[in-house]
Amino acid sequence: HLLRQMPSRIVDYSGTTSSLYMRQPRQLLNSGKNQMKKEVRRIMSEKQEKIMYFCTHASGNPEKAAMPFVMANAALAMDVKAMVVLQGEGVYLAQKGYADNMLPPGGFPPLSKLVKDFMDLGGELKVCVPCIKERNIDESTDLIEGAETTAAGALTVEALEADAVFVY
After folding, report:
1. Is 166 helix (H, G, I), strand (E, B) or coil?
2. pLDDT by residue (tens digit) across 73-103?
3. Please, what sign has the CA dihedral across residues 126, 109, 99, 117?
4. HEC per residue, 25-40
5. Burial degree of 84 (CB within 10 A; 0-12, 13-18, 19+)
């Protein structure tokens, strides 16, 4: 398992590449399992955990639309970086005033409160550009404060760097 998780090369924040990581994971394993375990722990402790939540629902299924925000708010409260990505029908949640008019999601606070709490806690809200264009949502005037537009390439990079990805 460690071999699959261990990058073959890591660049530290100063921009220099550690010579230890210039070696391939198999070479690192051969140099000593204890050393590898120490380095994996060091890397994991330096990296802030990050979870991505994809939301593809809106008023048609308020409970499913709320779930990414419920989970992301819990992650943020635990000092885990959280990103909610709105795609498909989910992009309506980033439209000003939309969440205010939704039915309450069964057993959870209103969606407008969940989204506001998410933003206040420092969550990242990404909105699919092709999805908002398809629904005639203007990215410069119609989106709530803090929502950022994005597309597939950037999201793929984010997903590859995340510790976990959930889709609702």
Report:
1. strand
2. 999 999 999 999 999 999 999 999 999 999 9
3. negative
4. HHHHHHCCHHHHHHHH
5. buried
Length of the chain measured in residues: 168
Q: How far apart are the first and last CA of the chain?
A: 27
Amino acid of residue 150? T
d(CA 148, CA 85): 10
Reference 117, options 151, 87, 147, 77; nearest CA is: 77
pLDDT digits (tens, 9 = 90+) for 30-68: 556 667 666 656 655 667 899 999 999 999 999 999 999
CB 80 within 8 A of CB 52: no
On whether the pTM is more than 0.85, the answer is no
Helix/strand/coil percentages in the chain, nearest 5: 50, 15, 35
Which residue has 């593809």 as its token pair? Answer: 56
Query: Whose CA is closest to 93, among 45, 49, 54?
Result: 54
State the DSSP H helix or E strand holding residue 53, giving kind and residue range, or none if neither.
Answer: strand 50-55
For residue 48, what are the contacts with CB-CB under 8 A and spacing of at least 6?
79, 80, 81
- Report which residue type is found at 55: C
